[in-house]
Amino acid sequence: MLKDKVVIVTGASSGIGREVALICAREGAKIVVSDINALTGEETSAMVRSSGGDASFMMADVGKPEDSKALVAHAIDHFGRLDIAVNNAGIGGASAATADYPLESWAQVININLSGVFYGMQQQIAAMMKSGGGAIVNVASVLGAVAFAKSPAYTAAKHGVVGLTQAAALEYGAHKIRINAVGPGFIRTAMTSNLQKDAAVNAMLVAAHPIGRLGRADEVAELIAWLASDRASFITGSYYPVDGGYLAR
Questions:
Q1: Is 93 inside any structural domain?
Q2: CATH number reported for the structural domain that contains residue 36 in this entry
Q3: Is residue 172 annotated as a catalytic residue, yes or no?
Q4: What pLDDT, in 10s, does the model give residues 20-41?
Q5: Is residue 70 one of the residues assigned to a domain?
Q6: H-run or E-run covering 198
Q7: Which residues is 239 bridged to in the sheet?
Q8: Pick from 223, 220, 101: nearest CA to 152
Q9: pLDDT value of position 198
Q10: Structural element, H or E, at residue 241
C-alpha cells in the first residue's frame, strides 16, 4: 500500500506517532522518525528496523520553523524525496477556564499544535511540489469539531488545524497534493495518562464514547496510513473522526 514511499512522522516517539511509523513501515514505507525526545525516538526507529523496515531518526521541535526545514531536508538527503507527511506532534497544555488560562501555556499550545503544523506543511508542500505530488495527514482531534471545558488553547489549536488543512487542500489539489485531517477521540496514550489515573474522570471519558471504551493508538494510525495511501486518491480537504462515536452524541 505504501511500498517505497518516504514518510515523515512527527511526534513519533510514542503513542499515535509511533504506531503510524510502525504501520506505514509494515506497508513498505521508508520512515523519517521525528520527535524532541531522542531516546524514545531512536527506540521507534529501532522498532521499525527490527520489523524489517527502513527508518532514520531526527530530533526536531515542530514549534521552530528552522527545525521543520531541516527535517524535510533530512528526508530528502537520506531517502531522496518526500512523499508523505504526518503532522502528529502535539501537547495538551494547562487545564483552566479561559479567563484564568496561563498565557505561557496558551502560547506554547498554539505554537506546537497549530503553528507547528503550519511550519511543517510549508516545507513539506514545497518538497512535494518539486517531486510531483504527495499526501499530508494532520492529526487534529475531536476537539477540532467541538469544545472541551478548561481546554481553550487545545480546542482553538485543533479547530485551527482543521481549517488550515482545508485551506491548503484547496490550494494544492491541482498539484496532486492531498491534505486531510483526522480527529481522534480520547486515546490511551501518554497524553491522556493523567486523566486515566482518576477513576471518576476515566469513567466519564469512557461514557462519552458510545463504543464503550477509549481508543487505541493503532486504530488511529490505521486510518492515517489509509488516508496517506493511493487507496484514498480522491480524498482531500476532509476531516475524519476516529472517535468511538464521541461526536455522534
A1: yes
A2: 3.40.50.720
A3: no
A4: 999 999 999 999 999 999 999 9
A5: yes
A6: none
A7: 181
A8: 101
A9: 73
A10: strand 239-242
Backbone angles phi, psi at 137, to 5 degrees: -125, 120
> How does pLDDT run across 167-182, given as a tens digit for each residue?
999 999 999 999 999 9
CA 204, 210, 216 angle in degrees (round to 5)? 80
* Selected catalytic residue, list 101, 119, 154, 246: 154
For 79, the domain range is 6-186+216-248
Quick check: is 1 in a domain?
A: no
CA separation, residue 224 to residues 6, 67, 105, 183 (Å): 15, 23, 28, 10
**Rounded-to-integer distance, Cα 240 and Cα 179, Å:** 12
Please tell me the total count of domains within the chain.
1
For position 175, what pLDDT does the model report? 98
66 grid coordinates = 528552522
Find, among 4, 5, 30, 3, the residue nearest to 135 by Cα. Answer: 5
Between the alpha carbon of residue 230 and those of residues 21, 113, 134, 184, 237, the distances in Å are: 17, 27, 10, 22, 15
Helix axes 15-26, 38-50, angle to 10 degrees: 20
Distance CA 117, CA 137 (A): 10
Q: How many CA atoms lie within 13 A of 90 on its CB side?
A: 26
Count of beta carbons in the 10 Å neighbourhood of residue 230: 10
- Report, as ranges of residue numbers, the positions in the chain whose pLDDT lies below 50: none
> Is residue 1 helix, strand or coil?
coil
